[in-house]
Amino acid sequence: MGMKCVGVDVGGTSVKIGIFEITGELIHKWEVPTRQEEGGKYILSDTAASILKTLKELNIPLEEVKGAGLGVPGPVMPSGYVEVCVNLGWRDMYPEKELSEMLHGIPVKSGNDANVAALGEMWQGGGKGYDDIVMVTLGTGVGGGVIIDQKIVAGKHGLAGEIGHVHIRDDETESCNCGGVGCVEQIASATGIAREARRKMASNDTPSVLRAFGDNVTAKNVLDAAKEGDALALEVMEVVGHYLGLALAQISMVTDPEVFVIGGGVSKAGSFLIDILFKHFDKYTPISKNKSGIVLAKLGNDAGIYGAARLILD
Amino acid sequence: MGMKCVGVDVGGTSVKIGIFEITGELIHKWEVPTRQEEGGKYILSDTAASILKTLKELNIPLEEVKGAGLGVPGPVMPSGYVEVCVNLGWRDMYPEKELSEMLHGIPVKSGNDANVAALGEMWQGGGKGYDDIVMVTLGTGVGGGVIIDQKIVAGKHGLAGEIGHVHIRDDETESCNCGGVGCVEQIASATGIAREARRKMASNDTPSVLRAFGDNVTAKNVLDAAKEGDALALEVMEVVGHYLGLALAQISMVTDPEVFVIGGGVSKAGSFLIDILFKHFDKYTPISKNKSGIVLAKLGNDAGIYGAARLILD
């Protein structure tokens, strides 16, 4: 048997854990609940106990484990220091050091969860076979991660890959959670797509199946209707595609990745979404015929455990 | 005596050459004319002959030269392949391999000149002491270079650092050289600043010292007048600062450098320009108080030879 590695993705509700061959095959995955009480002080010990128990059940001695990676929902300094993780109650700690001690000293490396998910997609997902990718996760919000030469670019202030907070839309009036106005997240997240649909319904009389949903319309409703040719839904997706495609074009003039990997719930719309994005991206990158591709993520919610496991392999 | 390295910056008019200590001190610099005839076939041999002659004059044996770096005015593939260099007449060649042979086999590494200049500023210029910078050169056009972990990010299609061709201005109607519309280069280059001044003069009646220059107004006129408080010149610089500051904000959400280094002729306006840029950059990065700084480049036209010499030290 070859060496193994462990990937841990800490979320606000549950901690996802996976055991992998170092060649990338997932051997076993499971979850433990995230206990947020008392500043999240039990999260790492619960995780460590569960890892040790599971390794034992699978007859994998700790000597066969190269190490563990840890995806954290907040900024992680290069030293492993975490100043604050709002969702977990963590403050002022070195989670990778703590987890390593709880796992009898095996190496542990940590990173921001969005960046770690991008690394996972590069390793075994939609970005497999590429060294340089930018991942964009279109969920409730918009997250991102930049990978260059198979490594996470975290940025000097932990802001690299904050694609959701690229200012892109000048005519936006509502504020974004970040304190800005007109961020990518406000238009290309599931929340943003639904809001754009509500705005379109309010501002014009185009007949649409979306009107039946009223203010409860979701991004999925919009994408399903757009695929069926619904005129208003297609208008919404043109606006979304315009701004997100433009943002990808801007990013490609900065790091010029081999591919953009699009993940998150909104990406379930598949090639229909990719085609809209590429059309607008292509329009804003006339400088060269050779340009980044846009592909779908493949790992879904497992991207985090894959990427965390990959962290330890450098 | 310690080891030396050579930096070569090939331009359309002259080839700049510098001999450096590997610790970064410039020992000697000079230029040779760029002979563009016959597809630029003499450029490298002229350069090599001049380097060998100068080393001899300086009593530096070739054994003390660690290698040479070569900045090329066009895209360079990771293999060193150059498909085309319009300004030089070069096509389909490996200049680093050719130059190495002409220099009796010492190692030669090449890179795009804008990227190489950024590396130079990181090594011994405005970005000295930082590992991660983004350089923006505001000259006739707008060039750029992205350095992460002291290395050039060239991009998979040679487009990384093409900051000048980030689309930023939706209400622009003229086309950019790249085929796009509304690029950073169209507003923040010396050419762009002068054009914006002509537009402002044509579209309003604000009294201004710039009116004396009429259609011959230059970016320097605008910056000089703005520093003196000229209302119309300040209007122009607010527009320029808005768009360039916004572009820097977008870039900082991608790679989050320690500092942006601003070079080129326009940067001679000094801290006056930096303050305007930072004001707008700061406005579009509300997500964190910890953010990139903006500093002036220091090496002027020598950035290319510094960066080329640095190329060989990895």
From TrEMBL, chains A, B:
GO annotation, biological process: glycolytic process
Record key words, sorted: ATP-binding, Kinase, Nucleotide-binding, Transferase
Its EC number(s): 2.7.1.2
PROSITE patterns in the cross-refs: ROK
GO molecular function terms attached to this record: ATP binding; glucokinase activity
Pfam families tied to this protein: ROK (PF00480)
Oxidoreductase found in the keyword field: no
One cellular component term from this protein's GO annotations in UniProt: cytoplasm
Alphabetical list of InterPro entries matching this protein: ATPase_NBD, ROK, ROK_cs, ROK_glcA
Record NCBIfam families: ROK_glcA_fam
Family: Belongs to the ROK (NagC/XylR) family.
Name of protein: Glucokinase
Origin species: Lacrimispora celerecrescens
